[in-house]
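SEVERITY: medium
COMPONENT: batch folding queue
REPORTER: lab tech (J.R.)

DESCRIPTION
The queue accepted two submissions in a row. Attaching both inputs and their returned structure tokens so the on-call engineer can compare them side by side.

ATTACHMENT 1
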Amino acid sequence: MRPGDGAEAPAFWDHLDELRAVLLKSLAAWTIASLLAFCFKDVLFRLLFAPTQSDFVLYRLLCRLAQATGRDGLCPGDIRVSFLNTDLTAQFMAHVWVSLAAGLLVALPLTVWWLYGFIAPALYRHERRYAVRLTCASLLLFAAGVALSYFLLFPLSFRFLAAYSVTDLVVNQISLSSYLSLFLVLTLLMGLLFQVPVLTWFLARMGLLRREQLRRYRRHVFVAILIVAAVITPTGDPFTLLLVTLPVYLLYELSIALIPRGSDSLPQPEPDPNLTRT
């Protein structure tokens, strides 16, 4: 309750104990999920290295499309990649770090839900509705970004970088740590990039961002995305280029659509003095 509602606020240490309980549950969920991922090593690394195989779902889809349209350039050719490990402990540590990352990804929704349960009693009803919508949207967008990175952006980036050569005298032998770093960083960046609509909505609520500002730079953003997509899709095929460009650009358009038309920001609701938090 807010001050003046006629009820004493819980003691500071009670809140601290509740927060500690949430953190401990989150840590326990992360630990259990990480241990499960560690035990299923074969499945985990089969998924992790699937984009390096010629039968990956994206490559099969492109080859089928090439057969249907008669454009052989759509089908990516076979690529042979050898991975190199020179550190005695590298493979074990890679197993540990990948398991921790997978466990964090699995435990994240539970952690967010428990954190919401911790702050929910301090919110009004209309604030709770906004918090639930933002939380669900953020998790769904993060999952969409991870999926886009795994099934589209990372495979294309990997094939480009693995096949790129400055001279025939240099043979690519990719280190295990290099592959895992690119995979994890790109996946995390795409998950965070897909939080842009949520951030846009929040900034619009605060009056710090307007629809006109995003619309003004629409063409510039499209060209920038197109250039980046052209770099990681060196085949030059328009279909593959659009396959990478459109999802990211649609994310930008979604950010514009979330800002109300004809206003700088959404109206800030005035709290009802008779409304208490339950």
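ATTACHMENT 2
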Amino acid sequence: MNNFLVATDFSAEAGHALHLAQRIAQRTGAALTLLHVAVPSGPGAPITAENLAAAREKLHALRERTQAAAPGLVIKTIVETGEPDECILAVANHLRASLLLLGTQAAGAFRRLAFSSRAERLVRFSSRPVLTVKVIAADYAVRRIIFAADFSPETERAAPGLAYVLALYPDAVLHLLFVAAPGKNRGDVQERIAAFSRRHHLPRATAAVVEASSPALGICRFAERTAADLVVLATRGRTGLGRLTHSSVAEQVAGRALPPVLTFPFAAVG
């Protein structure tokens, strides 16, 4: 059974991530694990037994509310102490989580320590797919999906991950997006996108080529212009050469784009 890990600091944003995790789990039959990492109240302050007991009680209450909303789901809880990034990644790896979900604040809002820049760091270092969520409506539905890539031969390795998303939302419109640097020769990018669409039987997909000073900016602007419900990116990590598969692009998009952003390393889907 798939296992989704939802990291929560009990914020509104983390609540949105849990709501989306619940909805996807109901579609896929995945189990949910709710993780809270208890941190000191200040530098040098201890984490007391009372602090841990309060955290466990709060997480248990969250589990009960989620279970009441989705009676059929298998839901577990974990409370950890330590450096949050390290704990979240360690638990995700230990559970072999198929998806890690995080809440993060919208750009321009006051950025708390938890799940703002943290989400960007976890996107960078996670070996597992990460879904970052800022805010979703109660009736949230995925009708428009953006898959941004450079459509080089290596993009083929991202096809299984994209296919998984499309199987979840078969009626969604898919935009295959390439962001070009201003004034640069676009070469055969339109043909590369069309070939990718043909190979993977995406007759409803539309190709989009936009110019922007950076890939992340182009993706975020296109997501806003098309009212996208989900942005999907595959990354090669910091050693990759492609502009749209560099992990820093995924970090920036996860931090800035308004809709939920799903990022996965090629190794996680190939």
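NOTES FROM REPORTER
The mean pLDDT is 87.
No errors were logged for either attachment.
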